[in-house]
């Protein structure tokens, strides 16, 4: 029965893929990778944090689907500021090791097309995690194949906007610009340029797994005009079929 089900799903995925040929696919897909611990419990693991390892590894598989379809910009929500600061220390340490070993290190391989960008307050991360991400950013900086992977870690959308305005004001002060002059000439573009994501394109489609129907502070500024797609499947169980369904829904929206 499992073999038959798998065959049916693969055939369905193939049909969906064929229908997407020639369709206007999103250029930038952002994803909230939610449900790792719940997936582990569902699968019968004694330690629910095992789900983080499967979830981290799955990131690269999903990135491969995007590259295959010509989607060259992806942003992945790995951990919020609260995830890092408020969760049990052992779980956070485990998650940070996975970020270093399962997310950052594979990007160093020469066959990876992705250039890494990091979005968030990296100062809340352990030194080893900051170092691993910085190493991967520097090592991939000159990749010119046009594939960009942004990892949102130590991230909160309200904090991002606050930091952007603060940095804008600091920059103005260093240049001798008065507060009134800043206020008189303040624009959306000026604030946007100081976001963690800078001038990179805003997402066309945001996918959240696990069945939750909320953004949880993810890309509050950037996703204001994005299409939203909520999927009941937990992140480690998020299949290519589920991804293609999200893309199909995107292509059918006016």
Automatic annotation (TrEMBL):
What molecular function terms (GO) are annotated for this protein? ditrans,polycis-polyprenyl diphosphate synthase [(2E,6E)-farnesyl diphosphate specific] activity; magnesium ion binding
The positions annotated for binding substrate are 35-39, 52, 80-82, 87, 208, 214-216
Which cofactors does this protein require? Mg(2+)
Subunit annotation: Homodimer.
Keyword annotations for this protein, in alphabetical order, are: Magnesium, Metal-binding, Transferase
- If you read the UniProt record, what top EC class would you report for this enzyme, in one word? transferase
Q: Active site: which residues? A: 34, 83 (proton acceptor)
Per the UniProt entry, the Enzyme Commission number(s) are: 2.5.1.-
Family as reported in the entry's similarity comment: Belongs to the UPP synthase family. Z-FPP synthase subfamily.
A Gene Ontology biological process annotation? Answer: polyprenol biosynthetic process
Key word Metal-binding present in the record? yes
Which Pfam families does the entry mention? Prenyltransf
Q: Check the record and name the HAMAP family matching this protein.
A: ISPT
**What does the UniProt cofactor note say?**
Binds 2 magnesium ions per subunit.
This chain belongs to the protein called Isoprenyl transferase
Organism of provenance? Micromonospora humi
Task of the protein: Catalyzes the condensation of isopentenyl diphosphate (IPP) with allylic pyrophosphates generating different type of terpenoids.
Output the SUPFAM superfamilies linked to this UniProt entry. Answer: Undecaprenyl diphosphate synthase (SSF64005)
């Amino acid at each position: 029965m499992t073999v038959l089900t798998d065959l049916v799903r693969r055939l369905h995925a193939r049909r969906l893929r064929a229908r997407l040929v020639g369709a206007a696919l999103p250029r930038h897909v952002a994803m909230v990778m939610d449900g790792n611990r719940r997936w582990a419990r569902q699968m019968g693991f004694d330690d629910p944090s095992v789900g983080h390892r499967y979830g981290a590894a799955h990131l690269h598989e999903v990135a491969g689907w995007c590259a295959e379809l010509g989607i060259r910009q992806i942003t992945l929500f790995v951990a919020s500021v609260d995830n890092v600061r408020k969760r049990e220390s052992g779980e956070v340490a485990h998650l940070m090791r996975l970020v270093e070993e399962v997310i950052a290190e594979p990007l160093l391989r020469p066959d990876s097309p992705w250039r890494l960008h990091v979005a968030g307050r990296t100062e809340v991360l352990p030194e080893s995690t900051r170092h691993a991400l910085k190493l991967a950013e520097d090592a991939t900086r000159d990749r010119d194949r046009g594939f960009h992977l942004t990892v949102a870690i130590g991230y909160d959308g309200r904090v991002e906007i606050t930091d952007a305005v603060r940095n804008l004001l600091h920059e103005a002060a260093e240049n001798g610009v008065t507060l009134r002059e800043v206020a008189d000439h303040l624009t959306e573009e000026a604030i946007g340029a100081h976001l963690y994501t800078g001038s990179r394109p805003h997402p066309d489609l945001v996918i959240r797994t696990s069945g939750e129907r909320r953004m949880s502070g993810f890309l509050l500024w950037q996703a204001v005009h994005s299409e939203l797609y909520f999927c009941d499947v937990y992140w480690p169980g998020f299949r290519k079929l589920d991804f293609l369904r999200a893309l199909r829904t995107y292509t059918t929206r006016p």
